[in-house]
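Recall that a protein's primary structure is simply its ordered list of amino acids. Everything else, from secondary elements to tertiary packing, is in principle encoded there. The following example makes that idea concrete.
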Amino acid sequence: MSTAILTGQPVPGSSLEGDLRSLGFDVRLAHDAGDAGTLLAAVPADQRVAVVDARFVGHVHALRLGLTDPRFPVAALPGAVSVQPAARRALTGAVARESSTAGGLAIATENLADRITTALDADGVDVHRPELGTLVAAVPTDPQERNEARQAVSAVDDEAVRLRSAVKARDGFFTTYCISPYSRYIARWCARRGLTPNQVTTASLLTALIAAGCAATGTRVGFVAAGLLLLFSFVLDCTDGQLARYSLQYSTLGAWLDATFDRAKEYAYYAGLALGAARGGDDVWALALGAMVLQTCRHVVDFSFNEANHDATANTSPTAALSDRLDSVGWTVWLRRMIVLPIGERWAMIAVLTALTTPRITFYALLIGCAFAATYTTAGRVLRSLTRKAQRTDRAAKALADLTDSGPLAELLTRFTRGALSRGPAYVALLAGALVVLGAALAPYGSGWPVLGAVIYVLLSPVALARPLKGALDWLVPPIYRAAEYGTVLVLAAKAEVNGALPAAFGLVAAVAYHHYDTVYRIRGNAGAPPHWLVRAIGGHEGRTLLVVVLAGLLTVVQFKVALTALAVAVALLVLTESIRFWVTAHLGGAPAVHDEGEPA
């Protein structure tokens, strides 16, 4: 349980104690700063502590935002400050100084919470102050001010504010107008019954997997049921985030589950559609794998660009300024959000086309829409990068290097090629990727030419390690490597022309893509990249690409299918085991809670 130390004389008729208890606080009274210090010392070190002025008047949700949000070690409102165990020492020091300065006089409680907040600011502690909007949080000093504050509280429905704030501030058109108007009430229903965001996230995953199973039946009834269930899964997907915001139930594990399950749901559904089509005699596995490759590469473009620029200095450009001006006009905002085909629009399109058409048509539409969106977003980001004068940080360069997923071969070759590959990483990576993919595409299956292309690809792979990736277009290196690796696997599996090769390739790309997504989520959570042994064990992008190409050159098509299957299983077991171990350990170990609002994925 958390503890709230109420300072000063209680105000007759105040509901503050009851409000704090409703938020899970054990309330204790302090008559002066010395009492506050004594009570603080008696609270177990692993508990949250809040110091609240007894004269506080405000909405319960204002207290909830200021005192219970798990994402921030220190948070403050007028007349209240809350500290998690990580910042406990800073709070103890501030209270001790206030007690010493006041000489133990009762006047030491005169807005002690605000004085503690000021002291924490002076000590360089990062104090979070939530945006309250129309919510009231005040410390009246006389009866008239108190009456005015109470009237202001009565004039605003904090439950309505809480429901509005549960919805993500930036989202797609479909989600904003077709889902969120009612999913927020589902979130409230879940909160009142004690359900957690992780439980809703899991329910969304299970619903999507059932939808994929329905699609795999290959019947019209199954396709209609799949479309409906996919939409309901998306409703639950919106609900889990809204529940987290509504009840402030943020966690490291929850953020990872939410992000990871989104990808698992979508790609499992692609597999279900491909299985359903196969039952009807139509092989669309190549289209399903192509859709997964394209969607994953789109995400890597987003991740790399954002990591490269989010903490850059002098980060301005005419293109960015034009984009900001367009975002100031209502209809252009929604148009630009829709044409990038975010998850809401994308899943709605997939669901409707599944129910009304065939898997092949669904995949054609998905590929065309995602290709247009990828071209639009990538072109805009390239223009921004070429016109902006950004100075990227060492942290950004490290994140990009981690996202490249370079393995032991690239590390070994770096010792010999550092000087030769220190210029134009994006152009070198593009050349290397084009050679390996075109070699696999143009040569017949079993030819040695793709192996030569893969060897050149490996020889050029140290470009990502030769120098810090701080150039204007260096953020393109990770997505180029992803496209090269995934594209090579797709092309070779398609050229094998044997039943089961493309599904095996689908599994391999899914396992590797999971590893790459996991890397992104660790970086976003400030947890660093996956351990070096894991990257070495699964070969890095260059090692896996070379291995797949060599296997295609040496094995028969049936043997190649078996080898792809075995490789997919091995990679999946390694990355899933390490990923689950890491995120569960981080959650149980009390890692800082995170909640990634991000871009609509």
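The longest strand covers residues 2-7. Residues 104-109 have pLDDT under 50 and may be disordered.
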